[in-house]
Structures are given as structure tokens and as C-alpha cells.
């Protein structure tokens, strides 16, 4: 760096076309680099939630299912998320947790597989644990074999026995971005269905679900989509699969005529058949309000800023932190990088504690990984420089 990192940060912030979005969030002093775990609060959400509670629930009560659009919220909010993950309308439905949607998607994919003699569910061996636990249970329930495989070995592991492959788009620990287009086509060439977990990519980078012919996908909304703690997840079922999608959790909300309350189940058309029971309206409408910060924001611009931020943070770490104290686990090439930087560091727990005490909030993945998430909507280059400088100070530089 010829210019000082702080000077460069100021110039980058001044040129940042997304910089104005930060004021939409309730962020005080300090540097928040944990939006890959829990996104920050958009400042207008409390008032909107208060309206849902006091007027919609408090005054309109039961009428709100229709008059306040409660009943149709899962599909409506799904359609708001859809463009952020490259999906056309009518394919994304919001509800339940990511874990529950992984279950629906994996069992649903096994049932969609045209060859019932295929024996294997291949799962990303480096997956966030919940996906692995659920895939294992789904395998037992469907009489399949679970085959854990590192994403880099996935193409070689696929074969005539593969029914379904479940892959994380971005690795939660290292921040590695897996190649969704090429892995999806390898899965399809093997005659299997591709299920993607988008928790760490949606809202941080383009996903292109329709363009790459993904079969099913799931994701959470409390990270880069800023929906709030425990906000509902979503399920994507590609239009071409919807008529045959046979959810393992057919509830009255996925029935074609819920209020007929018939003893026999008849699945609703479209993404609605991915619903189960009564939606969690308070969380769901908080999410709907939170998604307004995306109005007019291009996901390509978000991706460009995300890469610039993580590049710059790594540059500042290299400039400030003595050699050998941290090692980046995050790939340096852009094509393999999500929106976080993971640094392996001795005594990582104590280091993160001291960073947090200095107002730099990242998180720790035991035993030795410091994670720093970069949410382009509200993180700036000055934040990246301050975080690297605090890290160097904590490490005694
Ligand atoms: C890749 C991935 N899948 C799933 C989850 C969690 O699922 P749930 O929303 O059910 O807690 C997380 C994080 O919590 C995650 O990082
Ligand atoms: N979902 C979480 C929660 O309820 C509590 C604390 C953390 C989380 C997370 O999202 C963890 C996150 N998926 C991770 O990448 O580690």
C-alpha cells in the first residue's frame, strides 16, 4: 500500500455507491462484523412491528388474516426474496426454520428422483451441522445411504446411485464459495437432484437459482437479509418440480383448500405446498419490513462491494498484523470467496473477546477460527480498517 490504509479506506468509502444505505440501520458506534450470523436491525422495523402488534393484532384481530395480508404473507415475502436469489415469482415460500426446510427439500428431492433404485444422498461433508443431521435422518427415513463428501470431491463422487446432493453454497466456517453452476450441472449429469443451502450467500452475492436450474434450495433470513433473530427461513421449489413435489410435512396450510378441513390431503399448487402450519406472523412481518432496505439495490453491486471489502480487510491485516499470527482460511480468489473472512489464530477465544471489548464484533468458531462477516449494506471500508487495526493491537503489534 503506498497510501496509508486509513487514507485508502476514506477514499473507498467516499466512492462507495452503497454507503448511503448504512443510515437505514440501527448501528451505533463500533464495528459490526457478525451480520453473517445475525444481521443488524433496519431502523424502521420496530415501528412496523409495533403496528402489526397494536393495530393488526390488537385492533383488527382475526380480520387481519385477510385484511392485513397475513394469510398470504409466506408467498408474498417469498416473492420479495426471489429476485435476490435469482428466482422468478411463485417459487419461494417463507416459513419454518432452515433446518425444517432442509428436511422438506431433501425428502422432497428423494421423492422427485425419477429412479427409485438410486441409493445415495450425497451431503457436503463440511456442512453446517444441522444439514448433516437432517440429511442423515432423511436418509434413514427414505431407506437411502448417506454419503458425506467434501464439495471439491463432489463431481467424482456422483454416479448412477446418486439420488440427491445437498450442498452449502458458502462454507460457514471458512467462507469458501462453492461453484453452484458447475456443481449443479455435474449433479444433473449424474441424473440426480441438487439441493442448495443458501444461508451464507443469499443477500451477499448473486445465486442464480433459475439460471442454473437448481432443483430445490433453502436459506435463512436472519443473516444478510436482516430479518431478525429466528426470522423464518425459505424454501425454493423450481417451477418444473412443483406439481410433483411431495412434501414430507403436508400440513393444513399446504392443502389446496385449507378451510375445507377435509380428512384427506390434497396439495396446493405452486410453492404453497411447501408451507406446513400457521405462519409465525410477527417474525414474518418483521422480515417483510426489513426487506425494504433492498428496494433499488442491485445484488451485483452488493457482490462487488463485498469482494472489495474482504480484499481490503485482508490487505489491512497483512499490513498491520505481524506475519504468522493469523492465517486466512478464506480463499483469496474471488470466484471461491463468500462474504466473510475466517482467520485461524492461536488463542482465538481470548482474541475475539478482546476485539469485542474494543467494539469490533466478529465471532468465534471453536477452537481457533475468528470469523468476520462483511455485510455490504452497512459495513464500510473504514470498519474493515478499524477491525484490522484492533486485531493487530490485540495481537500485540
Ligand atoms: C448453512 C447453514 N444452514 C442452516 C443453519 C441454521 O438453520 P436454522 O435456521 O434452522 O437454525 C445455519 C446457521 O444457523 C447455517 O449456517
Ligand atoms: N442461528 C443462530 C442462532 O440461533 C444463534 C447463534 C448463531 C446462529 C447462527 O446463525 C450460526 C451461523 N449459522 C453460523 O454460521 O455459525
UniProtKB/TrEMBL annotation:
Q: Which GO terms describe its molecular function?
A: kynureninase activity; pyridoxal phosphate binding
Annotated Gene Ontology cellular component terms: cytoplasm
Q: Which residues bind pyridoxal 5'-phosphate?
A: 98-99, 128-131, 197, 200, 222, 252, 278
Q: Please report which protein family the annotation says this sequence is part of.
A: Belongs to the kynureninase family.
Q: Does the keyword Ion transport apply?
A: no
Give the UniProt keywords, A-Z. Answer: Hydrolase, Pyridine nucleotide biosynthesis, Pyridoxal phosphate
Q: Which reaction does it catalyse?
A: 3-hydroxy-L-kynurenine + H2O = 3-hydroxyanthranilate + L-alanine + H(+); L-kynurenine + H2O = anthranilate + L-alanine + H(+)
Q: What class of enzyme is it?
A: hydrolase
Q: Does the keyword Ubl conjugation apply?
A: no
Q: Which InterPro entries does this one have?
A: Kynureninase, PyrdxlP-dep_Trfase, PyrdxlP-dep_Trfase_major, PyrdxlP-dep_Trfase_small
Catalytic activity, EC: 3.7.1.3
Q: What does this protein do?
A: Catalyzes the cleavage of L-kynurenine (L-Kyn) and L-3-hydroxykynurenine (L-3OHKyn) into anthranilic acid (AA) and 3-hydroxyanthranilic acid (3-OHAA), respectively.
Q: Which GO terms describe its biological process?
A: anthranilate metabolic process; L-kynurenine catabolic process; L-tryptophan catabolic process to kynurenine; NAD+ biosynthetic process; quinolinate biosynthetic process
A Pfam family (short name) is KYNU_C
Official protein name in the record: Kynureninase
Q: Which residues carry this modification: N6-(pyridoxal phosphate)lysine?
A: 223
Q: Which NCBIfam families match?
A: kynureninase (TIGR01814)
Gene behind the chain: kynU
